[in-house]
Amino acid sequence: MKQYSYDGPVMEFDTCVANRWKASTYAVSEKKAKSNLTYQYKKKNNKLPNTRISLPGKLELAQWKENTI
């Protein structure tokens, strides 16, 4: 799995409800990461499951850091 982070606007239907929202998730693909992030936003902001939330910004793939002992 890869770690994805998002830092950008959030749209509810066609209205911008947040100019800047930061979050991250682990997922196997970018598509699944966006799905996870929209779910996170809905849960944290008490939105109904059928509310259309979109993240028009770009997802960033987090850089892996190896632990050295």
Textual characterization of the structure:
This protein has one domain: Ubiquitin-like (UB roll), CATH 3.10.20. Strand 1 (2-12) and strand 2 form a beta hairpin. Helices cover 22% and strands 42% of the residues. The mean pLDDT is 91. It is of the alpha+beta class. It contains one helix and four strands, in the order E-E-H-E-E. It is globular. The longest helix is centred in the middle third of the chain and has 15 residues, at 30-44.
CATH topology: Ubiquitin-like (UB roll)
The rounded Rg comes to 13 Å
Going by CATH, the architecture would be Roll
Low-confidence stretches: none
As a percent range, the share of helical residues equals 10-25%
* Rounded mean pLDDT score: 91
What characteristics describe this protein?
Ubiquitin-like (UB roll), single chain, 69 residues
Secondary structure: elements and pairs:
Blueprint: E1 2-12, E2 15-27, H1 30-44, E3 53-54, E4 59-61
Antiparallel strand pairs: 1-2, 1-3, 1-4
Task: Describe the structure concisely for a colleague.
This protein is 22% helix and 42% strand. It has 69 residues and is an alpha+beta fold.
